[in-house]
Design a protein that fits this description.
Elements lengths: L4 E5 L2 E5 L5 H10 L2 H8 L23 H13 L2 E5 L6 H20 L4 E6 L5 E7 L1 H20 L7 H27 L3 H32 L8 H4 L4 E4 L8 E4 L4 H4 L1 E3 L13 H4 E3 L1 H4 L2 E4 L2 H6 L3 H10 L1 E2 L14 E2 L3 E2 L3 E6 L1 H9 L4 H9 E5 L3 E3 L2 H46 L16 H13 L5 E3 L3 H17 L6 H10 L3 H23 L5 E9 L6 E14 L5 E2 L6 H20 L7 E7 L12 H13 L7 E3 L2 E3 L2 E3 L4 H8 L8 E5 L14 E7 L2 E9 L2 E9 L2 H9 L3 H27 L1
Parallel strand pairs: 3-14, 3-15, 5-12, 7-10, 10-14, 18-22, 20-21, 22-25, 25-28
Antiparallel strand pairs: 1-2, 4-5, 4-6, 8-9, 11-13, 16-17, 18-19, 19-21, 23-24, 26-27, 27-28
Helix pairs in contact: 3-4, 6-7, 16-18, 17-19, 18-19, 21-22, 22-24
């Protein structure tokens, strides 16, 4: 149907054309088919036990189809990858999958086969690097060690034989001289003098011979078991810096990239004095550039902070580098290699969006240029379209997470199950939870029912907009596990939607915990304001808090009060911590009011407009409250109460209400029955953001005059909550103030005329 109505403006009948066409009402009714259409995408199973997982490792990473296609292409030509995305979008998983694919396809060619060996260089501060066969270098080092051991053991025996022989020879000569002189003395008596001297000398030589023999014996006894000092020989043995047999991983993970773990260097020498110093080739160590075909830099921002980017760019260009010591004056600072190390690495780098600005400025984007030259920059999506393929991937992902949880249970409880059985597990679990568990309790994972999977899909939809699902999956892992534990504690056969809903309540981010406190405060504030005011100038706006870590949004009611006074300076006053966009929204509303008065030919006088976000202590940013501001100002301008049981959100441009973010969470936040809200007005363009709220709920089509909407029942088929889809601000006027366009404009013109007359009276009185 097409709605039309008539009303009077300034005593003239005017027929107003409807903002809605026939197809618009059909589209709203099409929204009601969303749960059935979604269920049809999952009609190939009833629970996750019937889901088959893909054998291709890359396909185990869900969503990110563009990234997966790029990884396959880059793996073909050994290119570089830069993945840009928010935490939890799968960067680490994609890097692991890339490593797996490379290992299965080209791993036997990419894995290093040569050992990297360091030899002494031309002086004490230089070393030489060589690439050798591991078996050959092992043989060389073993042979050198054996020869040094022989040299160490082959110590010469201490001997004074030459000295003893010389003394003995002299002794014999003196004895012969003594005998000859005795015979000569028989004929020539002075010869006996020679006899005495020769005898004394021979006695001295005899004593000297004995002294040498005793000294030789003592030295031999004291040196028994001693070895030669061969430290200088051991210092010449080559050092194996890298053995490919001991390192089979293709990819090295680097969380804090710097020169030490990327390039390597020389360790500190604690023995720098005497003959105890350690030669530089014994202190050398290698970084991942020399050892790993693939380098995964987990957070590129850390690399920029430590100033390693210039070194990385040089190595990516030259594919080699010289091993150098540190830049300080400590031990090893002057050490370096005489030749280059090979560094033909595949670089897989990850960063968040804020790091891109640093990369653009660093060397005029030199790193980005290197990546694009031999690879690709992949922008990971924070949300993906809700199509049949992605919906099936969610079910696959839940199946994978249940398998991972089963493995965790196995690793933790395997020994207890083998020794005590599941009864022992139950008794021990009772001590953990502090309560009794069912007699047939078993710590086994449960499969997810189709309805439970729909709840996960609903949550992914709520964390995004524009008919998309959030692809920040890391927080969802905790929800899946918590839901599993809920089902296990109940000993349920399957994980159901109630288990998921309870898990969502328990598994909150830091912002979610704060959100609960804020919402409770807003509930009390709204009730108090409602009891104290006549609802003129007061509107329940809708705001949203974003969690940076989980990507989750938390909606909350935002009470707004506006006041408009004639005869002012024609300004908008917004006190408190109001953001620039919110202030601009107020200016837009002022312009909108002036435009309406001009269109209907009503007089315009200066107006001072006050906009207050009640107790918004942390400030408000964004223009999603501009419709609420407009309604509050018009309410005060024409003195028409606003229905405080309805919330409103939207970005106002002229008369048109445009789409805003977080609508699903904004509506969900005020559907809490304790808040006392009965409905809300949302932009027409956000109509698809209501689809997730229809899952596992009863609902029906509604319409107020020409404005279509949906009624969702919060308790079975009771306690309705109405959601209206407004194209223009006049639709919101109808819902919140029960006035149509003509009635609003007539009362605006009447108020403007009264203000003009009043100001004229004041001016005459002042002149008089």
């Amino acid at each position: 149907m097409q709605a039309a109505f008539t009303c009077s403006i300034l005593s003239k009948d005017t027929k107003v054309e409807s903002d809605y066409k026939d197809n618009d009402y059909i589209w709203i009714k099409e929204l009601m088919r969303y749960p059935q259409i979604l269920a049809q995408h999952l009609d190939y199973f009833q629970d996750t036990s019937q889901i088959a997982l893909p054998e291709d490792p890359i396909e185990k990473v869900i969503f990110q189809d563009r990234a997966k296609a790029a990884i396959r292409k880059i793996a073909q030509n050994k290119g570089h990858i830069l993945m840009v995305g928010r935490p939890g979008t799968g960067k680490s998983m994609l890097a692991n999958m890339f490593n797996t694919v490379i290992d299965q396809s080209l791993g036997d060619y990419l894995k290093p086969t040569a050992a990297i060996v360091a030899y002494p260089g031309k002086d004490k501060n230089n070393i030489r690097i060589a690439y050798e066969s591991p078996s050959r270098i092992d043989e060389i080092i073993s042979r050198i060690n054996r020869e040094i051991e022989v040299a160490e053991e082959s110590m010469d025996e201490f001997s004074l034989a030459d000295q003893i022989k010389a003394v003995r020879k002299v002794k014999k000569g003196l004895l012969w001289a003594c005998g000859i002189s005795v015979l000569t003395g028989l004929f020539f008596s002075p010869a006996f003098v020679i006899t005495g001297l020769a005898g004394i000398g021979s006695i001295f030589m005899f004593m000297q011979e004995n002294n040498h023999q005793v000294q030789e014996k003592m030295q031999r006894e004291s040196s028994a078991g001693k070895r030669n000092n061969v430290k200088h020989l051991y210092d010449m043995i080559p050092e194996v810096l890298y053995d490919p047999h001991q390192d089979q991983d293709l990819m090295a993970r680097v969380s804090e990239p710097d020169a030490r773990n990327m390039k390597g260097g020389f360790r500190h020498d604690p023995y720098q004095s005497g003959n105890l110093h350690t030669p530089p080739h014994k202190r050398a160590y290698l970084g991942v550039h020399a050892k790993s075909p693939i380098i995964y830099i987990d957070e590129l921002k850390a690399l920029i902070k430590v100033g390693y980017m210039s070194d990385l760019l040089e190595i990516m260009q030259n594919k080699s580098y010289v091993l150098e010591g540190g830049k300080n004056t400590g031990s090893g600072a002057a050490d370096r290699s005489e030749n280059h190390l090979k560094a033909d690495n595949i670089i897989i780098a990850c960063c968040n969006h804020d790091t891109l600005e640093f990369l653009r400025n660093e060397g005029d984007g030199a790193f980005l240029s290197r990546i694009e030259d031999k690879g690709e920059i992949i922008l990971l999506e924070s949300d993906v379209p809700e199509n049949a393929n992605n919906i099936r991937q969610v079910a696959q992902y839940i199946k994978q997470e249940t398998i991972n949880l089963a493995e965790e249970f196995q690793n933790t409880w395997e020994a207890i199950i083998a020794k005590e059985g599941y009864e022992g597990v139950r008794l021990r679990s009772e001590k953990i939870y502090g309560r009794s568990l069912p007699a047939d309790y078993k710590l086994k994972v449960r499969d997810f029912s189709k309805e439970a999977i729909l709840e996960i899909i609903k949550e992914l939809r709520c964390r995004s907009s524009d008919r998309k699902m959030s692809s920040i999956l890391r927080p969802i892992n905790g929800i899946i596990k918590t839901a599993e534990f809920e089902a296990i504690l109940e000993n349920a056969r399957l994980v159901g939607p109630d288990h998921v809903r309870r898990a969502l309540e328990e598994h909150l981010s830091l912002e979610g915990v704060l959100f609960k406190e804020i919402v409770q405060h807003k509930k009390d504030l709204k009730k108090y304001i409602g009891s104290m005011t006549d609802s003129i100038g007061y509107v329940v706006g809708l705001a949203v808090i974003h969690s940076r870590s989980s990507g989750q949004m938390f909606g909350q009611p935002l009470p707004i009060h506006c006041q408009i006074n004639a005869g002012g300076s024609d300004t908008v006053i917004a006190p408190g911590k109001i953001g620039d966009i919110a202030k601009a929204a107020g200016q837009n509303v002022r312009a909108s009011i002036k435009k309406v008065l001009k269109q209907i030919g009503a007089p315009y006088v200066g107006y001072e407009m006050h906009v207050e976000y009640i107790q918004a202590h942390g400030g408000v940013e964004g223009d999603s409250a501009s419709v609420a501001i407009d309604i509050a100002l018009i309410s005060d301008f024409i003195k028409q109460p606003v229905n405080q049981k309805y919330g409103v959100t939207g970005s106002l441009t002229g008369d048109i209400i445009l789409a805003v973010g977080g609508v699903t969470e904004k509506i969900r936040s005020i559907m809490d029955r304790t808040l006392g809200m009965q409905g809300a007005c949302v932009p027409w363009q956000n109509k698809h953001d209501i689809e997730p709220l229809l899952l596992n709920a009863n609902y029906e089509y509604i319409q107020k005059d020409e404005v279509p909407g949906l009624r969702i029942f919060r308790n079975g088929k009771k306690d309705p909550f109405d959601i209206y889809f407004c194209k223009t601000k006049y639709g919101a006027y109808k819902i919140l103030m029960n006035l149509d366009k003509n009635e609003v404009e007539a009362r605006m013109a009447e108020r403007s005329s009264k203000d003009l007359a009043f100001l004229g009276t004041v001016e005459i009185g002042v002149k008089a």
